[in-house]
Hints:
The chain is an alpha+beta fold. Helices cover 27% and strands 31% of the residues.
Amino acid sequence: xxNFIKDGYVYLPGFLDKESCSQAxxxxxELRSSGILTKDxxxxxxxxxxxxxxxxxxxxxxxxxxxxxxxxxLLPTYSYARIYNNGDTLKPHKDRKSCEISATLxxxxxxxxxxxxxxxxxxxxxxxxxxxxxxxxxYVENPSAIDMQIGDAVLYQGTKMVHWRDAYSGSEQIQIFLxxxxxxGDYTDYKYDTRSCxxxxxxxxxxxxxxxxxxxxxxQGTNHFKRFVLEQCLLAAQKGQYFIQVALPSNINLIxxxxxxxxxxxxxxxxxxxxxxxxxx
Length: 281
């Protein structure tokens, strides 16, 4: 049995070359400067983006390497990138089904900031008590601290391993997350995170009916577009879905749209020329 299956995670030092890290980090900083990144819903000071093109490209390019490490056939779901800032804390948690097999890669770093990995406790005599995002107690055993360097990856079983970081004391750190599911497992329906395809292939592949509706919405301005998106979210939620992706018209106030959706307790991400909106059912 390989270490990934036995331990629930594997540390891969020097996994991604420094040039690729630098280019990805540069792209993230450009996206931040352009106002494309949004406030993260897990870390108070962080900014993030769901499924950026460069991230989904890495998701696909690195898949064979992760299959080799895990010994599993994998299906890509989505990428996610985050810029952490001083004071950010990643509280103990496990990931959703689309993140069955996940990798976190360090793109920039200026201080030591370990990520912790642990299994839920089976022996309460040796358990460590932690508080999750809902202030509920999670009991873990034998936590491991991994002090990742630029280019390092940690590949882990996202739906099983509890993982977290303590408060960040540095100025800025950029991480990218690559998520997959086991092609022979229970979560194959989450391929592409229920999208039609990965971001780099999606520029002109939106549903034609939806795109026509959005074109009409864009002709009537930002407020009409906001109402349209909220209606689509409601319809999708009524069908049991937790996610929609809509193409961005060219003549709307994007910041206004994002602010309105976030006020409705929706999670909003930008990806290429589209908006991704998620919610909790």
